[in-house]
Amino acid sequence: MTSVKEIHVDREPDADGLGRGTFYFTDDYSVFDWGRMPDRIPDKGTALCTMGAANFELLDVNHVPTHYRGVYEEVDAGAGEPKELGECETPPRTMAIELARVPELPVDGEAYDYEAFHAAAGDGYVIPLEIVFRNTVPEGSSLRKRRSPDEFGLSYEEWPDEPVDLPEPIVEFSTKFEEQDRYLSRPEADAIAGKASLDRLEELALGVNTVVTMRAEQSGFTHEDGKIEVVYDDGTLKVADVVGTFDENRFSYDGQELSKEVVRQYYRRTDPEWVDAVAAAKRAAREAGDADWRSRCEETPEPLPPTVLDTVSDLYTAGTNAYTGFDWFDAPPLDDVVDRVADL
After folding, report:
1. C-alpha dihedral over 206, 208, 209, 214, to 10 degrees?
2. Neighbouring-strand partners of residue 250
3. For residues 221 and 208, what is the distance between their CA atoms, to the nearest angstrom?
4. pTM, entire model
5. Beta-bridge partner residues of 7
6. What gap in Å lies between CA 56 and CA 211, rounded to an integer?
7. Cα 282–Cα 106–Cα 142 angle in degrees, nearest 5
8. In the chain, what are the domains?
9. Contact by Cβ (8 Å): 240, 227
10. CA dist., res. 230 & res. 241, Å (int)
11. How far apart are CA 313 and CA 324, in angstroms?
12. Cβ contacts of residue 57 below 8 Å, gap of 6+?
C-alpha cells in the first residue's frame, strides 16, 4: 500500500508481460513524505480517482500510452469489466490498471544499487524516476531553493514571493524509490532510467503537461506543475500511477492555490515544530549516510481541525467538479471554496 492508495493484484506481472490489478483510493493524505497523517479528508479518494480517470481518458484520446484500464463504481466492488468514466453514475473510488514489476532496490547506508534493480527488472518495470514538469514557480516550489531565476532567462535577482511564469515548460528528474527523494543531474537520471531513453521520458512528460494544461485552462484553472511516473513495457513507455490530480499536480484558480500545497502551507503556519523536526531528521539522516529519517523525528503532526478538513474536502470535490465539467459531488460552488481556502 502507498500512503494514500491500496494496490490490489489480480495477476502478478512476470517475465512475459505486465500484470493486472486495481488502485483503491483512500481518504488518507500525506505531506512532507511523512506517510499516512493522523486523520482523513472526506471524499478525497473518490475525487482523486475521478480526476485521474478523466485525465487518463484525455491522454488516450491524444494517443498517449498509459497503464489505465478503466474504473469501478463503489456498487461494482471491483468486479467484472471496468467502465469508462462516462459510464459511471457515481464517482468511482477504484481504478483498474496494468501492473509492472518493482524489483528490490538494495541500499547500503545512502548508496542505492540500481544495477541490481535493473538486473531483476527485465523488460517490464516501473522506471525508478519521477519526471517533474513546471510551467510556473509557485510558492513552496523546491526549485526556488535549488536554482536561480537567471537560469531560466528571468530578470529577477531573487525569486519574488508571488508565483512566476516560466518562459517555457521545464522538465526535471528525481528519484522515486529512495527513502528521501532527491533531484538528479541529467547524467545521474540517465544512469538510473535503465533501458528507458531520457529524451523519450522528457517528451512524454511534456506531452502530458500539454494535455493537462489545456484541460485546466478550459476549466478556469492555471496548471503550475506536476509529475508523472512511467512504466517501461518492452520498449513502450506508459504513463503510470495517477496523473493530473490535486495531489500530483499544483493548480491555482483566480490566483489562489488549489492543491495539496494548501495543506502543506497550513502545516508550515500552524505546526512549525513538526515541519522543522521533519527537515532536521532528514538532514541528520543524510549527514549520517542513513536512509531512515523517520526514526530520527521526535515530533508527530497534529490532526487538522474539523473546519479545515471540511474546506480541504470541498477543495477536492468542487475542484474535481469544475475540472471535469460534471457535478460528481454535492459540493459548494468553486468560487465559494476558493474564498474559504484563502482564509485558512
Report:
1. 130
2. 225
3. 16
4. 0.93
5. 23
6. 10
7. 35
8. 5-342 (3.30.470.20)
9. no
10. 8
11. 17
12. 68, 84, 85
